[in-house]
Amino acid sequence: MKTFILHVTGMHCPSCPMLIESELRDLPEVARAHASLKHQHVEVTGEFGDKTLAHVAEDLTAVVKKHGYTLSPERQKHSVGWGDFSRAIPIALAFIALFIILQKLGIVNLVTTSNVTYGTAFVIGLIASVSTCMAVIGGLVLSMSANFAKEGDKIRPQLFFHTSRLVSFFVLGGVIGALGSTFTLGDTETFILNLLIAMILFLLGINLLDIFPWAKKLQPVLPSFFGKHVSELRNMNHTLTPFLLGTATFFLPCGFTQSMQIYTLTTGSFWTGALTMFAFALGTLPILALLSFSSLRIHTKAQSGVFFKTAGLVVIFFGVFNLINNLAVAGIIAPLFSF
What we know:
four-stranded antiparallel sheet
């Protein structure tokens, strides 16, 4: 057994380490894999024979490259890819303008106060569904589908998974909302939590832009054992596995999901919290359903500089927009927007 530390290029969010670990642990020669977003590396232990560190890095890169990651013996010089912004900025501005117009027309009530509306939650879900956060869920769904397909059951597990995911986000979102009411959050506490939401979204956007490598160290993460135990569920062929896996996705280390969970805590209402998390899950459904029912690896097409920079700019817009409205409601600044 040998242990190697390989540097990783391409990490963006807290779900990236889990996705890398999940892929590497499936290899017969790998006994243990632990990836770190903070240090941008993965520690791998296994039976690699007489292979050199460079050879091991090359072999393992072939496994994770489909998700946009590269492993190397030495830390690679960070490359921003400034040219991607020439396409990313116009696309992001068009995307933002479209939703503002829809809000003005009353079709999508994007943001009216410092609160996140159901329309906002749905849009953030759409963005999350093509991020590396949802690439983790996509990988779990495909693995689970493969296990059940061996027994000739292809459709039912998918339906159970997506149904349980929507139901669990509704119920657990309601629980978090109701939990917020027990604390009787005042104006100050609500302001602080809304500020935290804006900061999480802003950090997510900055990391998606991939301009400042040090920003990845500031991204809040859940303990790694959460993701590890969720990942292990995919190999179970029990009838309840799709239900358990769909419910477990609520606890995966996704910054988008965490920002919505924090917001539901500020609502102090079971129904508002439930409908907010349901709207978010509903936003992720189209891409995840297409991925699971067609075995189309949607997220692999998203691994491009232009896509991540576009998504990053849109997410930063949500974070800054939330922050400005939060400050306006608190009376710290004058309202800057009329919608």
